Structure formats: C-alpha cells, structure tokens
Amino acid sequence: MPGLVTYFDPPPGVNELPERLPSPFTREPHPLARRAAAIVRAELGAAPAAWGLDAAGGGKMFGVLVVAADGGRIGFLRGFSGMLGGRWHVDGFVPPLFDDAARDAVWLDGEAEMRAMAARLDALSGGGAAAAARARLAEIDVRPQPGLVLDDAAGNARASQGVSRVASAGARG
What we know:
Blueprint: E1 6-7, H1 31-45, H2 48-51, E2 62-68, E3 74-80, H3 100-126, H4 128-139, E4 140-150, E5 157-167
Antiparallel strand pairs: 1-3, 2-3, 4-5
C-alpha cells in the first residue's frame, strides 16, 4: 500500500543502522525505533482530541517497525491497537489484520446484543430489586455466637466459639 512507510528525514547514517535485526526481547528499543516512536508521539500529540486520546479512557497502544526499502532507504511503519478516532483505517497507519467484511458479518449483530445486555445489567443493578437487596444486606450484622466457626482456608468447620451471621431482626443465619 502506498503511503504506509514514513521515511526518516534526515536519513540515518550508516553507523546508525544495526548489523542485524535486533531482538524484540531486549529491554531497550533500538535508537531508530525510539526516533520513529518520537515522531509518532509528536504527530499524535499535536492534535490529541482528533484521535480521542484526551478523553477519559482514551489511552491507546501504538507501535513502530523500522524498515528498509529497496535501495536501502530507511523508514518505519506505524500501527495502533483497536480503533483510532473511531476508525479502523487511518491514513499513514497499517490496516488491521482482519477481514472487515467477515468481521462485520458477525460483529454488528453481536455488538447490538452486547449493548442490549449492558442495558439490561444497568437496569438490574440500578432498579428496585437491587436497591432492596442492598438495603437488606446492610441490615445483616456479624456478631460472635457459640457454634461453628471456619477453621481453615478450605472451609472446614469445627465446634468452637465463633462468628455467625445474625439479621438485625434476630433471625439466625
């Protein structure tokens, strides 16, 4: 795809290029990868609102891959996780690694179902039944009672002075 490679300007010198591909498991990125990341950060930082990066929860993972074009010209590819600014495809970034049509064939219906389930959860957790259950739970008190007490982390019980739940109305739990 044209326009995916951003070439370094000025180009790196011969002494700045690694002799072989650096390991992705080293603690420090190669200086050219750092340089590419700084360029991407500066471009994104110039207009964070355009990408939704300044909104609450607007964090995003970005990555760069330094590449050499035919003829030895050095540049980098840039990518992001998920969507950026509400879009899967953004000029200058590599496209997603999935088939859009295949995703849309299942995702749109699934997304609608998830929204319906989230709305139902909100209704249940904020409705009258939830409020009544919370009120009843607040009435429950923990008091020392003779009887069974949990003896170990596995929940084995033994007879001893212990703790049991007693509702404030006096019913034993």
